[in-house]
Amino acid sequence: MQTKVRTEKMYIAGEWITGKKMFDVINPQNGEVVANVPTASVQQMLTAIERAEEAFQNLSSWPTHERIKVLTKAANYIEAHHEMFAETIALEGSKTITEARGEVKRAIQTLRISGEEARRMKGETVNFDQREGSENRTGYYYRFPIGVIGAITPFNDPLNLVAHKVGPALACGNPVVVKPATMTPLSALMLAKAFAEAGVPKGFLSVVTGAGREIGEPLVTHPAVKMVSFTGGLAAGKKIAHQAGLKKIGMELGSNSPVIVLEDACLAEAVSSTVSGAFSAAGQNCIGVQRIFVASSVYDDFVEAFVERTRDLQVGDKMAEWTDVGPMISEQEAIRVEGWVQEAVYEGAVIEAGGIREGAFFEPTVLTHVSHQSKIYKEEVFGPVVMIESVESLKEAVKFSNEVDYGLQAGIFTKNLDHAFYAIQHLDVGGVMVNDSSDYRIDEMPFGGVKGSGLGREGIRHAMNEMSEPKVVCFKLGNLWGV
Q: Which residue ranges does the record assign to the Aldehyde dehydrogenase domain (predicted)?
């Protein structure tokens, strides 16, 4: 059955606007056109930024209680239209309908937490009298919004990753201009509708659709944009950092996440967790499991159980309730992953399961004996492929885990606290999940990495710290104090 094609408008400073040109949003599963969306011009992007700056200057003291109200109402709107949001996420992207429903739930939580954190954006008093001669001084610091935030978001979580930028920005009192992924703009536009219905002040939110190569640079380089918050690939992140100049930058640039399984681990739990972590969202997940290092004494048992569970996954129609793994975001991406796997096999890797592509679908794939020089070992595969390797010690596992130029999150399965703390202290990553795969996150926790995995931290309160600045206030008191 042909999906009814929607015609959408952009949301610029409180107005729904079309463009002279339109582009198609394609369902990667079958190539059907889901919607027609405006291709913004450079001038339209500049208008969004300028209106945001005007709104910030005219409403620089947007009261906290109003921010809380808007964020809460937007969350309530999404909750009231939960299934509509989920269907949109699934249609325009790679997620199954079940995974899409989970993302909607998380986005609601993200906005509600943002509202809660708005009331907790506080400073503290400073004891100026700790310095000799400052006995007659007292003061404090508080945090203030920095201004327009430019947000650039990816396709793999088209609603919640937008919420992770919009929610904290508005909670601080900052306007935000969002450039969503070209392949998945519909969820961001629906989020804009939620905020419009919630009464966000005009200018404080714009969602500008179109090609990053045309409207991305104006968003990154405009002097009114005080921070760029970007989630995407390392190459694009490096380019943005070069373009941005002297302004704040927050970047989550992906990973090549390792998981360590020691001989004392609960293998059934480790297998279940890592299979899910490797193949959810068709492997297109920045904290998805890519490399698994298993103690040699349990390696064979682990591989056998992992492969068996992988083969049980149901690949197919992403709108079906029974589907575990849907298509990748495009056939081109699936072809890329297929090429990486074939290259690894040529270099000595063994395919234990999967390895077959059909259109945009790529079967969940398990590799062993992968060369550490292979591209698929060193880079972020961003597809449904996982590598399993035998190790002789925890120290060796940690060494292998750290030898790539990424460090977002890692996991370790063990019942030994000494081993757990060794991994915590020596894994060069932004987060260590003990007895969980790397693919575990709650939206409140600080989220980000080291090395090529990015700069700064997301997670609502932590993003708010990035999107605000402390201002120190010091009072020198007069002679009434008798000093």
A: 16-473
Among 385, 403, 161, which residue's Cα sits nearest to residue 277?
A: 385
Write the CA distances from 352 to 192, 281, 285, 288, 305, integer angstroms.
44, 21, 22, 19, 11
Mean pLDDT of the region 360-377: 98
What is the reported pLDDT for 1? 47
DSSP E strands, 361-435: 361-362, 365-368, 385-391, 406-407, 409-413, 431-434
- 482 pLDDT above the threshold of 80: no
Neighbours of 329 (CB within 10 A): 25
Residue pointed to by tokens 């279940």: 272
Q: Do 6-253+453-470 and 257-434 have matching folds?
A: no
Fold classified for 6-253+453-470? Aldehyde Dehydrogenase; Chain A, domain 1 (3.40.605)
- pLDDT band with cut points at 50, 70 and 90 for residue 216: very high
**Is 252 annotated in the active site?**
yes
> How is the beta sheet containing 137-145 ordered, strand by strand?
124-126, 137-145, 468-476
Residue tagged active-site, from 53, 99, 103, 286: 286
User: Does the 257-434 domain belong in CATH 3.40.20.10?
Assistant: no
What does the pLDDT read at residue 480? 57
Tokens in use for 119?
Answer: 């009331």
Distance (Å) of CA 173 to CA 147, 199, 208: 8, 14, 20
Q: Is 172 a catalytic residue?
A: no
Higher pLDDT, 311 or 5: 311
Domain ranges of the chain: 6-253+453-470, 257-434
Q: Across the chain, what does the average pLDDT equal?
A: 96
For position 479, what pLDDT does the model report?
65
Q: How far apart are CA 213 and CA 223, in angstroms?
A: 19
The Cα–Cα gap between 207 and 415 comes to: 47
With cut-offs at 50, 70 and 90, classify the pLDDT of residue 60. Answer: low
CA distances in angstroms from 374 to 158, 255, 346, 348, 404, listed in the order given? 30, 16, 10, 9, 11
- Give the mean model confidence (pLDDT) for residues 283-288: 96
